[in-house]
Amino acid sequence: MASALSDKLSRLVKEMRGQARITESNVQDMLREVRMALLEADVALPVVRDFIARVKEKALGQDVVGSLKPGQALVGIVNKELAATMGDGQAELNLNVQPPAVILMAGLQGAGKTTTSAKIAKLLKERLKKKVLTVSGDVYRPAAIEQLKTVSAQAGAEWFPSTPDQKPLDIARAALDYAKKHYFDVLIVDTAGRLAIDEVLMEEIKTLHAAINPAETLFVVDAMQGQDAINTAKAFKEALPLTGIVLTKLDGDSRGGAALSVKQITGAPIKFAGVSEKIDGIEIFDAERHAGRILG
Ligand code: GDP
């Protein structure tokens, strides 16, 4: 099925035919449509600018101007560039360390960290037969600790208890100790997040990271976050050496432009996509499919 962008470009090219040859300035008109499509998909403006500059260079280099179907040729280049930017074949979790491999979950409150912790626990348990322990360092919200307990049980993963009067660092260390003694393969550490970027919490998660030396530090981000995803991504990238991104709530009606923004800002591979509230609502991120979604 032709995408909305494809249709628009075809129309534009038809209008241009008869009037003039396809020229560099006509390519500019087409790129304007691409720019609009990306902005409509909520890709952040600076990211759109960079992306368009790259596409323009490729389009001119590959002689879109001289091609018979310049609209389609350009859509092809845009699609390919989008998929290449968002996906780089590193979707696998790297758990190749002396067990237990620690996975640290980072992100704003409500992004989906707790849900994703359990989803990943279930994946690892069912597909790779891993013995998985979860623990919550969210001492600010007792409900969050309980939530992790509930979803871990659904995932068939063991949950390590923590309480709001403990320090996150002590919790993580105790869980790691327990995981070592009981031969767990993986320890998933869920963390607190606030609604906005918060200095105190950033310091806390940095300290946590330094103490538990995770094999994976996953940045969980809500696909519905849109333009603002860029600021969140910047803050987390500055605080932590991110090893992967989980893009949640792709079952919502956003076009998912946050994927491009977050990937470009952090440089970390997008490993998973959250596609429902349910515990098995997780997929390996498919960059090509997602490129189609962004272009509408
Ligand atoms: P946290 O604060 O980062 O731990 O976020 P939660 O895991 O508590 O998730 C916040 C809300 O988003 C909950 O209502 C989840 O059920 C929901 N949620 C998380 N991931 C997804 C997803 O992929 N799709 C949908 N539809 N909802 C999700």
From TrEMBL:
Main location, first listed in the record: cytoplasm
Entry keywords, A to Z: Cytoplasm, GTP-binding, Hydrolase, Nucleotide-binding, Ribonucleoprotein, RNA-binding, Signal recognition particle
SRP54-type proteins GTP-binding domain location: 269-282
Top EC category: hydrolase
Record-listed GTP binding positions: 107-114, 190-194, 248-251
Annotated localization: Cytoplasm
GO molecular function: 7S RNA binding; GTP binding; GTPase activity
EC number: 3.6.5.4
One annotated GO biological process: SRP-dependent cotranslational protein targeting to membrane
A GO CC term assigned to this protein in UniProt: signal recognition particle
Function text: Involved in targeting and insertion of nascent membrane proteins into the cytoplasmic membrane. Binds to the hydrophobic signal sequence of the ribosome-nascent chain (RNC) as it emerges from the ribosomes. The SRP-RNC complex is then targeted to the cytoplasmic membrane where it interacts with the SRP receptor FtsY. Interaction with FtsY leads to the transfer of the RNC complex to the Sec translocase for insertion into the membrane, the hydrolysis of GTP by both Ffh and FtsY, and the dissociation of the SRP-FtsY complex into the individual components.
Family in the record: Belongs to the GTP-binding SRP family. SRP54 subfamily.
Domain statement: Composed of three domains: the N-terminal N domain, which is responsible for interactions with the ribosome, the central G domain, which binds GTP, and the C-terminal M domain, which binds the RNA and the signal sequence of the RNC.
Assembly description: Part of the signal recognition particle protein translocation system, which is composed of SRP and FtsY. SRP is a ribonucleoprotein composed of Ffh and a 4.5S RNA molecule.
Protein name from the UniProt record: Signal recognition particle protein
Species whose genome carries this gene: Lampropedia puyangensis
Phylogenetic lineage: Bacteria, Pseudomonadati, Pseudomonadota, Betaproteobacteria, Burkholderiales
